[in-house]
Design brief:
The complex is a heterodimer. By secondary structure, chain A is α/β, with parallel strands linked by helices. Chain A has one domain: HUPs (Rossmann fold), CATH 3.40.50.620. Chain A has helices at 41-57, 72-81, 99-113, 133-141, 195-201, 249-262; strands spanning 3-8, 11-13, 22-24, 29-31, 37-39, 59-66, 85-89, 118-122, 145-154, 159-166, 169-176, 179-183, 207-209. A 9-stranded mixed beta sheet of chain A has the order 11-10-9-12-8-1-6-7-13. A two-stranded antiparallel ribbon of chain A has the order 2-5. Helices cover 52% and strands 16% of the residues of chain B. Chain B is built from 11 helices and 10 strands. In chain B, a hairpin with a 2-residue loop joins strand 4 and strand 5 (174-181). The radius of gyration of chain B is 21 Å and the shape is globular. The chains are: A alpha/beta, B alpha+beta.
């Protein structure tokens, strides 16, 4: 028994440089020039889980991403971690896609690859943070999905119990392959690539698929295929209000609690 | 001309940086306070393929080259210079086998050294002074199939933990290089020096008293031992010290920039004060200059140049980087004010570590002598 595992990853701006990101007021877009990019942090956890599952059951891990030609960098990094195959969905026609118009080509690309047993995604990205692409992709592929997954327990090679984080607890769900799981950071500790992994990664082939290669219908991809539009992009300025409550600790704490209650903060 | 790093080298830098920030930053302080050799961390670095980064794949290495080694040393030292010191000193012993050892010696020793299952050191310096190695007193007398070693080596980095020690001794009037394994009768690890910096890397005295080693423990050609050791010290030791200094300087420069942007005086961050901008600009220029001297020397080694051909390039890198590390760290301490010498900010610690580099792999004056001789030639 071996599993075909697909991990969806995304190239995102490095959050450490978010303060350098500016907004183009005319084009209503985010200026990302000169901002280093990385694999979306949660996608690293998805890759790690994929590799761990492959080590447990044997099989193949394929990373898929959609993006400009430079997105090959995140696939190289995934290859350095030890995945088997890498696919880049790259076409100008994909540009301007919202989450649904991202999920369509991903679904088509994954179908084109053939069999799959398990699809892993990061629960959300640090740039868009919608958390929608995973569930949309599962719907388009006609398979079940679970989001906020922080633990996977394998009953056997087809059945698994996944733990999904809730706001104040968790739920356990029993699922059968094929399934799509969106993972959160608590699921594992991602490995680092090794020197040999890095050296081999840049020599491995990355498959490029354009819109034609994956047979996507016009009107389902890119800006034209996006049912949602960004209405406005603006810099959010948040201001903190501070109040200093003076006095002896016991008295000051009482008054602080009272004030927080008044403000409905507690 | 192309000054860019390859994609592989960029990925390596990202990997080592992530490792250093995740696994080293949080323990640097306690490692320094305990002063114990960090076997676990070294093993992890070996698993990542960093320890064997300059060794051939057939002997357990990852063969990524000298520029890659510099990247690893710079990034590790940016967070915790003593681990860069491990690369500097540990690679000395490894490179002795790699460059001058027999196939059998490489198989037997280089493979476990790349995996960090064993640790190596190289011992040349004696009481007579490291800058004048030809004055060494340690003798190796050939009796039958064995050499009998007598003498004393001092200031041997990793001496206290090394499983294998490569050393140079005199047989009549010839210098030979040998290795001895820990536990060999007559080979004793002596006093551990109480150095100011590089606290978790032991520096010891090594004592040979009628220590018998088989003839097969000779490394390289008979009579070429000192040349072999000096070649390794130049290509590995000096570049290693240069890389540690580069990382130690960069780490504190970044800490100073961060502090200056956050610390407010007169109602605004102190980075707005032109006096501090001048200091930071000087630090920035010197670190960039040191960086290119370091990478240029390593690039030349990767091009197959001999240490003899590029002795000036290597010496410049070591000389300048070590001075820059000290100047940068002192400026960083000044920018941080009262916080500069506290343990939490790690700047003073990097200064202490940088001081140790002044004599590592050859003193600053020996670097000037080497450059001076080439100018005169």
């Amino acid at each position: 028994m071996s599993l075909d595992i697909v991990v969806c990853i995304k190239q995102v701006p490095d959050p450490e440089y978010f303060s350098r990101i500016t907004i183009d007021p005319v084009k209503q877009t985010i200026r990302r020039d000169g901002i280093p990019t990385i694999i979306n942090p949660l996608d690293k956890h998805a890759l790690e889980e994929g590799l761990k599952i492959k080590e447990k059951f044997s099989g193949k891990v394929t990373a898929v991403t959609m993006g400009p030609p430079s997105a090959r960098e995140v696939l190289e990094e995934a290859l350095a971690l030890g995945i088997d195959d890498a696919v880049l969905l790259c076409d100008r026609a994909f540009a301007g896609a919202d989450t649904l118009a991202t999920a369509y080509p991903l679904a088509s690309g994954i179908k084109k690859l053939g069999n799959f047993d398990l699809i892993l995604c990061g629960n959300e990205t640090v740039d868009g943070a919608t958390g929608q692409v995973g569930p949309q992709l599962a719907e388009l592929l006609g398979i079940p999905h679970v989001t906020f997954v922080n633990e996977i327990e394998w009953t056997n090679e087809r059945d698994l119990i996944v733990k999904s984080t809730l706001e104040r607890g968790y739920m356990k769900l029993q699922v059968t392959l094929p399934v799509l799981l969106s993972v959160v950071k608590e699921i594992n500790e991602p490995r680092l690539p090794t020197v040999l992994g890095i050296m081999e990664a840049t020599e491995k082939e990355i498959k490029f698929f354009n819109a034609k290669d994956i047979d996507v219908r016009e009107g389902t991809i890119g800006l034209a295929g996006s049912p949602t539009r960004v209405a406005d992009v603006f810099e959010h300025k948040s201001k903190r209000k501070g109040e200093i409550i003076e006095g002896l600790p016991e008295d000051a704490v009482k008054r602080a609690v009272k004030r927080l209650r008044e403000l409905k903060a507690i | 001309m192309d000054f860019s790093f390859t994609r592989q080298q960029e990925m390596l830098r990202n990997m080592v940086r992530e490792f250093a920030e995740k696994d080293l930053a949080s323990i640097a302080l306690s490692l320094d306070e305990r002063g114990e050799f960090p076997y676990d961390i070294i093993k992890k670095m070996a698993q990542l393929g960093l320890v064997g980064i300059v060794s051939p794949k057939e002997y357990g290495g990852t063969e990524m080259g000298h520029v890659a080694r510099m990247i690893a040393i710079e990034e590790v030292s940016r967070i915790y210079p003593p681990l860069g010191f491990f690369f500097q000193a540990g690679h000395l012993g490894m490179y002795m086998f790699q460059m001058f050892g027999t196939d059998e010696q490489k198989k037997k020793y280089l493979i476990p050294l790349c995996k960090a299952e064993k640790v190596a050191c190289t011992a040349v310096t004696e009481q007579s002074g490291g800058s004048d190695p030809s004055a060494m007193q340690t003798t190796a007398k050939l009796v039958g199939d064995e050499y009998i070693i007598n003498g004393r080596k001092v200031f041997i980095t990793l001496g206290g933990v090394a499983d294998i020690c490569c050393f140079v001794a005199k047989t009549d009037d010839k210098f030979n290089a040998f290795f001895v394994e820990k536990g060999t009768p007559g080979y004793v690890i002596g006093r551990k020096e109480n150095h100011t910096g590089m606290r978790c890397i032991p520096v010891n005295e090594l004592i040979f008293t009628d220590c018998k080693i088989p003839k097969s423990n000779l490394v390289g050609q008979e009579g070429r031992g000192l040349v072999a050791a000096l070649t390794v010290i130049a290509s590995i030791g000096r570049t290693g010290a240069a890389g540690i200094a580069l990382g130690a300087g960069r780490g504190s420069y970044e800490a100073a920039v961060k502090f200056a942007k956050e610390r407010e005086l007169y109602g605004k961050p102190i980075i707005n004060l032109q006096g501090l901008q001048f200091m930071l600009a000087d630090m920035n220029v010197e670190i960039e200059a040191a960086k290119w001297l370091c990478y240029y020397a390593e690039w030349l080694l990767d091009q197959g140049k001999s240490t003899r051909e590029i002795s000036s390039e290597i010496s410049r890198a070591k000389l300048f980087s070590c001075e820059v590390a000290i100047r940068t760290n002192i400026k960083a301490i000044q920018i941080l004010g009262g916080y500069g010498t506290t343990a939490e900010y790690h700047v003073a610690r990097r200064l202490k570590d940088s001081i140790e580099l002044l004599s590592a792999g050859g003193t600053q004056e020996i670097m000037r002598v080497t450059i001076g001789r080439n100018i005169m030639a």
